[in-house]
Amino acid sequence: MPEGEPAVVVDGLVKRFGDTEAVRGIGFTVAPGEVFGFLGPNGAGKSTTINMLCTLLRPTGGVARVAGHDVVAERDDVRRRIGLVFQDPTLDGYLTGEQNLRFHAELYGVPRAVAAGRMRQVLDMVGLWDRRKDRVSTYSGGMRRRLEIARGLLHSPRVLFLDEPTVGLDPQTRASIWEYIRRLQAAEEITIFMTTHYMDEAEYCDRIAIMDSGTIVALDAPEALKAAVGKDRVQIRTPDGTAALAALKERFGLDAVLAEGAVTFAVASGEAFVPRLFADLGVPITAVSVARPSLDDVFFTYTGSTIRDAEGAGKGTDRMRMAMAARGRR
Ligand SMILES: Nc1ncnc2c1ncn2[C@@H]1O[C@H](COP(=O)(O)OP(=O)(O)OP(=O)(O)O)[C@@H](O)[C@H]1O
């Protein structure tokens, strides 16, 4: 990567699938060494974006440069400089951890003399050196994901792409994967570009872009995004959620959402607002809670829906995954 060039530069990037505009002219840059997160519900266009940056999908329009090279005109240069860790496992279960890595090293043309030392380094980093002789089929889900991360790092990429690296893992394993990601960022000085729909994970990123319906609706450091919201989140429980929604709109001019039996809305000085709520809502309230802004609230502020609600609206991503799996990731 030429000195001073950003790790990722995207300008006016578009991807259409027939009538569906999955990515609608987005633009951003990622600095070398940054942990950059793409946050959004299913169907927002995160995977489509990451697949274009990894050269697995050809953009319909716009420009993207990764590690100093154009993703269309210099596809092979980009491929050599990136590592991929995707949601779908692509390890061979009947091979040992070590054999999986060796196969990958050969695929990427890592010189033999370098490969052995590098293999030890990456296996140590993810805590799997002692298990390297065991078949991957005997590994736990978290160990497999760690091995995939080690594999993605084997050829010393400048940018590591992680598409939902911890999806389907238990919270403890997710936390340990994050520890590894942070450690490797420090050790390897690589840029990490990841997608997630876990709000708590987005907190680990240096900056996050919130994506919704193919566009980036907000982009900043998590703390800055939260500070910009400036409102508290109030959640009430009531026997009649629909009536509460209507009353909040009518009496206070507030837009609220009803999800999982709770009514949620954002308001400045939430604690001071609660007495008014009880006095004037006109709908019985059985419980109330007030919380400071979280990334969920940031998401709600920019998209007008909670991330879980928005997920219900996503469609076609399974088809996408099946297509990707059929085509092969590399
Ligand atoms: N190969 C495809 N053919 C047709 N439509 C597609 C294809 N891939 C994605 N889409 C559509 O593009 C939109 C964005 O999908 P994408 O998978 O990028 O979202 P996402 O944010 O990554 O969601 P997820 O979190 O589920 O991975 C969706 O409407 C999806 O249906």
From TrEMBL:
Domain ABC transporter: 8-238
Entries under InterPro entries matching the protein: AAA+_ATPase, ABC_transporter-like_ATP-bd, ABC_transporter-like_CS, DrrA, DrrA1/2-like_C, P-loop_NTPase
Superkingdom classification of source: Bacteria
Single Gene Ontology MF annotation: ATP binding
A Pfam family this chain is assigned to: ABC_tran
Membrane topology (UniProt): Peripheral membrane protein
NCBIfam families: drrA
Family: Belongs to the ABC transporter superfamily. Drug exporter-1 (DrugE1) (TC 3.A.1.105) family.
Protein name: ATP-binding cassette domain-containing protein
Taxonomic lineage from the root: Bacteria, Bacillati, Actinomycetota, Actinomycetes, Streptosporangiales
